[in-house]
Amino acid sequence: MNILLCCASGMSTSLLVSRMEQAAQEKGVKAKIWAVSADEVNNHLKDADVLLVGPQIRYKLPQLKKAADQQGIPVDVINPADYGRVDGKKVLEFALNLI
Amino acid sequence: MGGLVGFLEKHVMPVAGRIAEQRHLQAIRDGLILAMPLLIIGSIFLVVAALPIPGFPEFMANLFGEQWQDKLLYPVNATFDIMALIVSFGVAYRLAEKYNVDPVSAGAISVSAFLLATPFTFSFTPEGAKDAVDVAGVIPAQFMGSQGLFVAMLLGLVATEIYRYIIQRNIIIQLPEGVPPAVSRSFVALIPGLVVILVVWVVRLLIELTPFESIHNVVSTLLSKPLGLLGGSLFGALIAVLLVHLLWSAGLHGAAIVGGVMGPIWLSLMDENRKVFQADPSAELPNVITQQFFDLWVYIGGSGATLALVVAMILSAKSAQMKSLGRLAIGPGIFNINEPITFGMPIVLNPLLIIPFVLTPLVLTVTTYVAMSTGLVAKPNGVAVPWTTPPLISGYLATGGKISSVIMQGINFVIAIAIYYPFLRIWDKQKLKEEQGMEQPSNQAAV
């Protein structure tokens, strides 16, 4: 299970990554989770099973969706409230449901 | 205020999205990003060369000789002073990527086009001579840095547009039968680059007939100078700050969107200061508004100067939600990351908290601008401090160790607390009520 997160510079999503890793461990899910900036996404898509987008760059969704569709992986915007609370558990579930 | 939120969602967001997604602006932004790590690396050398520690210059001179400073600045010359060259490649590369044509070739052609626009002469006045002589056979370093930035960006876009247009048109050269197809393909591969070079060459020849003399002069007179005046003014800064925070209020990354347009302008203003500072650290710096002006003095703790809000939260919040949010947000906040606040509190689409979120940075823009332009506080000297550097340290590094600028960050922080505090109290009370209501379901207030 490979979960790719992206935001403007990959900073605030990296905050979420550590929380999601914790949640994955608790759940016993084996997952590779990492965050990149929006301009690097294309180089990472081929390693990902799902792409999650920070709500602050949701205007990029159409473009990211196109790129993700080419790789045949699902993509969606993270719920802003879960994002703000850095709720690793909820976002992990969200990712698992997308796949 | 509910009307404002509706307005943001309905009108601001789609426009912002379109601007942010515009492929040429995106290519410019991503192309500039290519140069940023180099500027930060160059900055490290610049900081060391001008460390404001008594006795340090003498110590270095003893250790490495009188020329130590010049030697320390070699990497600065190979980072800051070639940023246009890097951007020329970067912009073309990123744009070609978006068109799915070979980005490396597009980047190489763009660099060539940029150099073709630059006369390989240097005007030099020998000692004792009255008139300057043109020295031939040099690539003038002055145009490889920020001074050539706009030409590099423009030609990067134009060259790549021509390049991909011709490739997508799929031009074929018919060679006589018997000629191996690979030979004709190798000729075809040359056409896009050849057309780019021809176009830039003809433009240069035409401009040489006018009083402008070079493409660099045209772009500087018509584009970079007017844009610099606008972007470097208090008015321009306030408009930019207002837009950034209105966008954030709608939950969009305002700094990334506005910075995509303003980035090149603020970067060249920053580099103007850097050149003056490098030549003479005690000289008066020309610009107040640079990239660092916003990152370090206005956006303390992230857009909206929310570190003040977080600290106020930790010190005074009574509701469990705000207390725990304060603890969650302080770590990232010190490094100017504030999504836990903007989305977690939330400020986004929250009519009450949008008020101080927009107001605070506008006020800080004015206070900082006034303090710096009157000379009370040192201006940023062009050192490219990463925006994730914690406040106080960042102010020290970005002004060559001037304490006035560190104090200014402190003053701005206090102003921000004063503006946020009343709004935090209202919000905190509301949350406290909700929490108490949850404990006693019979008292639950209507939402």
Can you tell me about this structure?
The complex is a heterodimer of chains A (99) and B (447). The model of chain A has no long low-confidence stretch (mean pLDDT 92). In chain A, 47% of the residues lie in helices and 19% in strands. Chain A is built from five helices and four strands, in the order βαβαβαβαα. A four-stranded parallel β-sheet of chain A has the order 2-1-3-4, sandwiched between helices. Chain A has a single domain, classed as 3-Layer(aba) Sandwich (Rossmann fold), CATH 3.40.50.2300. Chain A is of the alpha/beta class. Chain B has two domains: 186 residues, no CATH class; 198 residues, no CATH class. Helix content of chain B is 69%, strand content 2%. Chain B contains 21 helices and two strands. Chain B has a two-stranded antiparallel sheet with strand order 1-2. In chain B, a hairpin with an 8-residue loop joins strand 1 and strand 2. Chain A: Keywords: Kinase, Phosphoprotein, Phosphotransferase system, Sugar transport, Transferase, Transport. Chain A: This is Lichenan-specific phosphotransferase enzyme IIB component. Chain A: It holds the Pfam family PTS_IIB. Chain B: Keywords: Cell membrane, Membrane, Sugar transport, Transmembrane, Transmembrane helix, Transport.
